[in-house]
Design a protein that fits this description.
alpha+beta; single chain; 2 domains; 22% strand; three-stranded antiparallel β-sheet; 223 residues; ten-stranded antiparallel β-sheet
Length: 223
């Protein structure tokens, strides 16, 4: 590495910088113009679920489930279906739909995911966390350490324990994190209102059976 290059933090909370980007070559090259979930989630996983971010309905007095959004996703098209429910005020939306408001994914959701993963993979001790180069922690950029996830997304990768996200919360959430053994991964993007968790069929079935707003993923579904 060029010692004259800009310095970025080598430690953030409980996470330590991974300084060898070649270790990340298995990650996907995300496309923002075409393709489905398979183009967004790293390859090699048996199945995946998508988990709706915290979307609260004041009228219903609870967080929304995918079933609350299904007819709108069908009507507007999944790529912008959730956002259409949140922002569209056309007359064909009933009063309940116009009261949907967006909230960031809650720590409770992450704690449930963490608990399920920890119970299924008790030996998971280290994870990798991909943090966007434009996150607030990075005042400068270091091209030698950045990984290009797509034409418009770059990240730095850090390593830490499964619960390491807690030392970042609520300032940021990683764009992608996974166990060093690659048994599972979780991925998200600022332009969509849900996250993907991928792993074995057994793991995704346990997530589907939880109280989280989960739905099974078709690999070629529009994104």
């Amino acid at each position: 590495m060029n010692m004259d290059s800009p310095r970025i933090p080598r430690q953030i909370g409980e996470l330590r910088l991974v300084e060898n980007p070649r270790e990340l070559e298995w990650l996907p090259r995300v496309t923002h113009h075409r393709g489905g979930a398979r183009a967004f989630v790293p390859s090699g996983f048996e199945s995946a679920v998508r988990i709706l971010d915290a979307l609260e309905s004041r009228r219903l007095g609870r967080d929304l489930q995918w079933s609350d959004l299904s007819r709108n996703i069908a009507a507007y098209g999944r790529p912008r279906g959730v956002q259409a429910v949140l922002s569209n005020n056309d007359s064909d939306l009933d009063d309940t739909q116009t009261e949907y408001v967006f909230e960031q994914m809650r720590s409770k959701t992450l704690e449930v995911i963490e608990g399920i993963i920890a119970s299924w993979f008790p030996d998971t001790s280290l994870c990798r966390y991909a943090l966007s180069t434009i996150d607030t922690y990075f005042d400068t950029q270091d091209d030698a350490l950045a990984y290009n996830m797509s034409d418009i997304r770059r990240c730095y990768v850090f390593e830490g324990p499964l619960e390491g996200w807690r030392s970042l919360w609520p300032d940021i959430l990683p764009s992608l994190w996974w166990s060093t053994g690659r048994e599972w991964c979780m991925t998200r993007d600022i332009d969509i209102n849900w996250s993907y968790v991928a792993g074995s069929a057994t793991l995704t079935q346990r997530l589907l059976a939880s109280d989280l707003p989960c739905a099974a993923v078709e690999w070629d579904e529009p994104l």
